[in-house]
Write a structure and sequence with these properties.
Helices cover about 55% and strands about 10% of the residues. It is an alpha/beta fold. The chain folds into two domains: about 5-130, Rossmann fold (3-Layer(aba) Sandwich), CATH 3.40.50; about 175-270. The protein has a five-stranded parallel beta sheet with strand order 2-3-4-1-5, with helices on both faces. Strand 2 (about 45), helix 2 and strand 3 form a beta-alpha-beta unit. Helix 5 (about 135-145) crosses helix 6 and helix 11 packs antiparallel against helix 12 (about 235-255). The chain is globular and about 65 Å long.
Length: about 270
């Protein structure tokens, strides 16, 4: 990367591995021997949302960081990572835009955001956009077979749809947000109907988590549908197809339905 862009946007769904890719890219740009070295590097700065938002104060802090002089002959000597950039307020996006328009020559600014979320068009015009795609199954097996069994890799691959971040989280049992939501979704889907209905209040109080919960449910049901298809089990195929249809309908209705309890009641009766 002799003449790298000074602004990069890594996009993809939750669990695609955006954050891991961003840190790997940052370590390579800074010439570090491993992602773990970023934690102590004086010219790497990472900003993540607080309480679901990235405000103007976060960006002002970054702008102060950009004013620091970076020693050395290397072309790129400083990297900034803005994780979940779609959670920036409008004011924060406007402030960041100024830094993207005239970045220091020694600096690369990396943003991550889901592909379905929108930033200001002017930000898109100032960055190189890179979509993080799922990895092929054979590549996952070849890369991970030294640390995990083929059966575990295959199971995690199916559940993650090949999205590298979630795939690793499922195998390593980490606290990845979507991996944790999958555990909750598994418990709820496997429960009797009356127990599912009891969980409605819990889920409704965490409305900001509902999109992730629905995504977790879809991953579980898609895996079950695939397994039923392999076994040519017609009753299970019908069940999981019906459940997936209900999940997609709930996902489409969620942004327009202020009554989360009613939506969840319909869904829990369909799981």
């Amino acid at each position: 990367m002799a003449h790298p862009t000074h602004g990069v946007l890594l996009s993809g769904p939750e669990g695609s591995g955006k954050a891991h890719t961003a840190r790997y890219l940052a370590s390579k740009l800074l010439g570090l021997n491993g992602v773990e070295k970023l934690a102590t590097h004086p010219y790497f700065k990472e900003v993540s949302p607080v309480n679901g938002s990235l405000g103007i104060d976060h960006i002002r802090d970054l702008q102060k960081f950009l004013q620091l002089k970076t020693p050395g002959p290397k072309g790129i000597r400083r990297v900034i990572l803005v994780e979940n950039a779609h959670l920036m307020t409008t004011e924060a996006q406007n402030a960041l835009l100024k830094s993207l328009e005239e970045p220091p020559e020694d600096t690369v600014i990396i943003l991550t955001a889901p592909a379905t979320q929108k930033l200001k068009e002017t930000i898109y015009s100032r960055v190189q956009q890179i979509t993080i795609l799922p990895v092929p199954k054979q590549q996952a097996l070849d890369s991970l077979k030294g640390d995990f069994s083929e059966a575990d890799i295959t199971k995690a691959f199916m559940m993650s749809s090949g999205h590298a971040g979630l795939l690793l989280a499922l195998l390593q049992d980490t606290d990845h947000q979507l991996a944790q939501e999958i555990l909750r979704a598994k418990e709820i889907i496997g429960s009797p109907r009356y127990e599912r209905l009891i969980r409605i209040d819990e889920l409704a109080k965490q409305k900001e988590q509902l999109p992730l919960f629905l995504q977790a449910c879809k991953l579980i049901c898609s895996t079950a549908l695939h397994q039923a298809a392999q076994k040519q089990a017609a009753p299970q195929l019908k069940r999981w197809h019906s459940t997936l249809t209900a999940l997609y309908q709930a996902e489409a209705a969620l942004p327009h339905n202020p009554n989360a309890k009613l939506l969840l009641t319909d869904l829990m009766l369909s799981l």
